[in-house]
Amino acid sequence: MTKVHTSNHADSYYFSTLKYQQSYPMLHESIEADVCIVGGGFSGISSAIELAERGYNVVLLEAYKVGWGASGRNGGQIIRGIGHDIEGFRKTIGQKGIDAITQLGFDANQIVIDRINKYQIDCDLTMGYCDLATRDKHMKMLEKEVEHLRQYEYSHEIKLLDKTALKKQVIGSDAYVGGLIDMGSGHLHPLNLCRGEAKAASDLGVKIFEGTKVEKYTPGETIVIKTTNGEVRAKQLILAGNAYLGELAPKIAHKILPAGSYIIATEPLSESVYKSLLPNNHAVCDQKIELDYFRLSADKRLLFGGLCNYSARDPKNIAATLTPKMLSVFPELADVNIDFQWGGMIGIGANRLPQIGRLDHNIYYAQAYSGHGVNITHVAGKILAEAISGESSLIKHFEKVKHFTFPGGKHLRSPLLAMGMMYHKLLDKF
């Protein structure tokens, strides 16, 4: 019998409702591939599918379980764009680069939707999302966003709402002054998406190995990737471990900061309660520096997330920390039980632009989605596959941007960034 890796996923709501239970073997031999991918999250799996669809022989190595990291623990929101204002990079990438990356940010959601439909992945896809404004300055930001979307002829329904309309159409709370509805964005079950995509990749011929940690790789025309019990010899290599890549590639390891993000899930809510909270089942996110994001699950629990932690110390009790934030929005949930609490690491970049590039002519990487990864990981997979196949040079727009190393070295970068974020959170109050 083939030995499989048995390390479990985080004890999350997503793991408790996992529909794709397949396991993959450990690597115990030396094999060859056109492309070897390190990391079994969205970046790696999406790259694998894109390459397999193009006829490449692909091997994917995952240290734990497919979807074990941020891809299987996040808020499950697919939100248009790349998660950052691209205008600040105009001098570096020019108008052509701005236009290309902006369009990629719009395309990203559609890649996810098309993938779900093509491979019939059961992951509770629901369209409808709203940016929430807690202050008047946030509404002005959303007004500018509408101008931007219209300038680029964004093809989905968008609508600005004042406080009265917002409370009627989106959220039964007095905590917000307005919002922006986007029907081209939405929410889903991320672990089922990731595991469902892994099944699709496997069906396409991708060889997936779980419980297979990469210890080192040796560059060359044939790259040798050493694992604990085996090796892969590949013509191309993709590093897709993001916050969990560790020191495998020192040149990019310190370009990101692994930061903790956390979620709680309530018990299933009655129909009258959940309809009073989010009557049209939108996913929502506010505009604060330390933002809150929440949505309903398919079985009508409230999944409430936030508390991005830059200090490298997890809260002693996630529920005790997040519940007061939830109750500040929905005080009527004071007597509702919290059934699940979990967290994970996201990769933060200093300039918040996704880092997609090459370490060598045949060694690629994608990381630093800064909390916006469900959609951007999927477009990253397309960019990397097209770079390897020679179909497009979209990767060059990202490669032009310089990504700074976080100051303070391995042990001081988290505390230093935590201090900086405290300053920005203070500014957010004014």
Q: What does this molecule look like?
A:
The chain has about 425 residues and is α/β, with parallel strands linked by helices. The chain has one domain: FAD/NAD(P)-binding domain (3-Layer(bba) Sandwich), CATH 3.50.50.60. About 35% of the residues lie in helices and about 25% in strands. The chain is built from twelve helices and 17 strands. Strands 3, 4, 5, 6, 11, 12, 13, 14 and 15 form a nine-stranded mixed beta sheet that branches. Strands 1, 2, 7, 8, 9, 10, 16 and 17 form an eight-stranded mixed beta sheet that branches. α2 runs parallel beside α6 and α3 crosses α10. The radius of gyration is 21 Å and the shape is globular.
Helix coverage percent: 25-40%
Distinct helical segment count? 12
Classify the secondary structure makeup into a structural class: alpha/beta
Compressed to H and E, one letter per element, the order equals: HEHEEHEHEHEHEEEEHEHEEEHEEEHHH
Shape: globular
Largest beta-sheet details: 9 strands, mixed
User: N- to C-terminal separation?
Assistant: 62 Å
| CATH-assigned homologous superfamily | FAD/NAD(P)-binding domain
Classify the fold: give the CATH topology.
Answer: FAD/NAD(P)-binding domain
CATH architecture verdict: 3-Layer(bba) Sandwich
